[in-house]
Amino acid sequence: MQRPLALHLAVALLALLWAGLIGGVVLVWEGTTAPFEIFAGVFWSAVWCFWLSRVWLGGPMAIGLMRKALFGICPLLILGSGLAIGMIDGQVYPSQLSGIAAATCGIAGGLLLCRGDVRRWSSSAVAPRVLHQPADGTAFDLRGVALRQQRGLFGCLMMVVAVVVLIVVGLIGAALPDDRGADAPDYVAFMVGVVLVVIIAIAGYIRINLQAKALGVLVVSSRGVNDHPWSRLRSVALTYAGEAAVVDGVRRYPQARLDLSLYDEPDEQRLALPNDAHLHGSIAAALAARSPEGVFLGWVQRADRPRSIR
Description:
It is a single chain. With about 300 residues, this protein is α+β, with helices and mostly antiparallel strands. Helices cover about 60% and strands about 15% of the residues. The protein has 8 helices and 11 strands. It has a 4-stranded mixed β-sheet, with helices on one face.
């Protein structure tokens, strides 16, 4: 499925949004620019570009978070600019026009991201991809699905953390005099926050890669599941903990897991599955089509909530 035109336009408008905000800041800037301000501008520009890249790639969480941010902040920006114009007897400054134009681009971009074609494309972009298609079955790249999902979730979390750092630094700076030096507490807090964000991001992505690597590939074929032939399998079940729910027309099973019961082993083998409803449906369909009669039990609700064994 091709990337829809609405997404192209939305990303272009969001790029103009950031350019307008930067232009407004430059127009009201007074005095010389300190290295700290340059570094701050580069840092937040990098955060915005990363967010836009996630939107461009179709990350559902990035798109959803972007919509909420645009509809929450841009109207306030327009309202604030209008109040400022009214408080100065109707005199309009270029920085205010830049802010209003940027906010308008943001609202238009948010409306485009709400379109149904964008939602459908985003769902298809993160749908499970078949690693290869054996002649007698299907192989699912669990590692790839987990990486795409967890990286998107972690990236959105890091963007939220970055915004929290901005708010905290702003509150500290608002309580300090304008003639504070380069070693002021808000400058120090910002630098410490940036270092912590970078460290957490690196450590988080390393952990995500290690966890996803353990999932590997799930092969369902006429011969069996992975290295286990059907003659060795007493039963195969997709299990879940909690209550299944239908969201956007798709049934979702929390904490999904593949449980294999073997004739020659007393304990079940368990494989935790990524939290992806489309992947679950594809695996269930493959098992139903390839397993001997009576072996695949379908979806089974677990009575307890044990931690999945990977």
